[in-house]
Amino acid sequence: MSALAAVAAVLFAVQPAQVPPATGAAIPQQRAAVEKSERIMAEAQRRPGLLAQYLYMRDAYTSTTAVPFRLIFNQYLSWFQTWVGDYAGARTTFTIAQPAQKGDSPSPLEHGYRAEPAVDAIAALAQGRQAVFFNENHSNALTRTLTVQMLERLRAQGFDHFAAETLYSTDKTLATRGYPTTATGFYTEEPIYAEMVRTALDLGYVVVAYEAESDAIGDAREREQARNLIRRTLDAHPQARIVVNAGYAHIQEAGRYFDGKSMAQHFAQMSRIDPLTVEQTFMTPHASSSDDHPFYGAVTGRLQPQQPIVLRDAGGAPWSLRAGAYDLSVIFPAETLRRGRPTWLSLGGERLPYPITSALCADQYPCLLEARYADEPDEAIPADRVVFDPAHAARTTRDRVRTSADAEPTTDLYLRPDRYRLTARSTDNRVLGRRTIDVSAATATQGH
After folding, report:
1. Which of the 8 DSSP states describes residue 255?
2. DSSP character for 216?
3. Which of 364, 343, 412, 365 is nearest to 384 (CA)?
4. For residues 81 and 249, what is the distance between their CA atoms, to the nearest angstrom?
5. Which residues are CB-contacts of 406 (< 8 A; sequence separation ≥ 6)?
6. What are the φ and ψ backbone dihedral angles of 93, each rounded to 5 degrees?
7. How far apart are the C-alpha atoms of 300 and 284, rounded to whole Å?
8. In whole angstroms, what is the distance from residue 375 CA to residue 294 CA?
9. CB 95 within 8 A of CB 281
10. C-alpha to C-alpha distance for 245 and 7, rounded to whole angstroms
11. Are 276 and 129 in contact (CB under 8 A)?
12. How confident is the model over 342-380, as pLDDT tens digits?
């Protein structure tokens, strides 16, 4: 899928009320903004290495305050921010406000719902289902974390195929390699998404690319995705049990999807399978609480969840903010930062915060620090990344690396207990330093 198709995908995938209307004079402005954003991204991708690409995108963003351009380009920049590990910055750059809408369900606080850990509730609700669909916000990797955690639970139930949006069918050696590279997909450049694919492979899932291979958008893209998903799973294995990751409203089960139907609706119609649809983009914390759904603050304020939760009534039925469109809504806890990075990067405790300084950068900034599994080559998408940029951090609070005049910049990498190869790279993609580390509960509290 091209970057242009990715932008169109988001514009079509979010709920209609969440997208500013483009009518009259606004339509040419938005078209011009998309075209300009495409040119900038294409130019950025000619730069040597991800750090240089990210800096080019960041500079292009800060060089203009034109609202029509930023409304489009902030989405592009947010992708690069997630790719380099600036998750807090990405959440600020591109956000989708969640106002109350006419079709919202009543507040669960008024109808006797009880909270359960989402990992347990979803596992219970998936019993006997042939397909489970999760959605995500492509600019907020928080909405990928629970899906990664669920893969093992669902595999234990017999789910055996994992399909993810924007994977490239041209990566023919993914299964034998066991790890994603830049050739694997569009969003897999982001380490949590890469970990999702890597985890699925480790658990023995058949990983499936179902993305539309044309430049179709709207209903045509949804139909093509559903058709690809069925052809690459059920046609060869009618009893296959499928876990699907998709963006936004691609998984809605009812209602008009702009000019037609969603991928999930087409899938259900073609396959006669009713998927369990897990909505993860509505009940999340935003950079500004004014953008949160009104129920979000009320629920998290009263229940104080420390992990993603699902609310179920006395009969076990789950609460969904948009009943009928989705089977259940996941409610994520308020975000907590540690050394400038969100603690949800721990993946529910599966990964540990490993304190790290910029020593490998050899006083050359900006510097990209990457942690790869020790048995994977430099081509593999790393388990985590951070950018050290003290000069920029001193000018703005958008970059979340903490610095001081008397010490090297420090932050946390989030890593599973394992052996890793750390690599620091300069803006021209030169290797500034390497180090191998072993991450355990003990070393994570000390770091290097």
Report:
1. S
2. -
3. 412
4. 23
5. none
6. -65, -45
7. 10
8. 46
9. no
10. 18
11. yes
12. 999 999 999 999 999 999 999 999 999 999 999 999 999
Return left, alpha or beta for 251; rule: phi > 0 is left, psi -120 to 50 is alpha, else beta: alpha
Give me 276's structure tokens.
């369990």
Three-state DSSP class for 437?
strand
DSSP 335: P
* 379 vs 171: CA distance, rounded Å: 13
Which architecture characterizes domain 108-331 according to CATH? 3-Layer(aba) Sandwich (3.40)
| Amino acid (1-letter code) at residue 413 | L
Strands across the sheet containing 328-331: 114-117, 309-312, 328-331, 276-283, 131-136, 242-247, 161-164, 206-209
pLDDT digits (tens, 9 = 90+) for 114-166: 999 999 999 999 999 999 999 999 999 999 999 999 999 999 999 999 999 99
Within 8 A by CB and 6+ apart from 345, the residues are: 87, 145, 192, 351, 353, 384, 412, 414
User: What does the radius of gyration of the chain's CA atoms come to, in whole angstroms?
Assistant: 21
Mean pLDDT of the chain: 91
Pairing of strands 384-388, 407-415: unpaired
Retrieve residue 444's tokens: 């994570």
CA 291 to chain centre: 19
What are the residue ranges spanned by the domains of the chain?
A: 3-93, 108-331, 349-446
- Cβ burial of 326 (10 Å; 0-12, 13-18, 19+) is buried
CB-CB contact of 337 with 310 (8 Å): no
Amino acid type, 260:
G
Region of residue 365 (phi > 0: left; psi between -120 and 50: alpha; otherwise: beta): beta
201 SS3 class: helix
Which tokens in the block code for residue 73? 């380009």
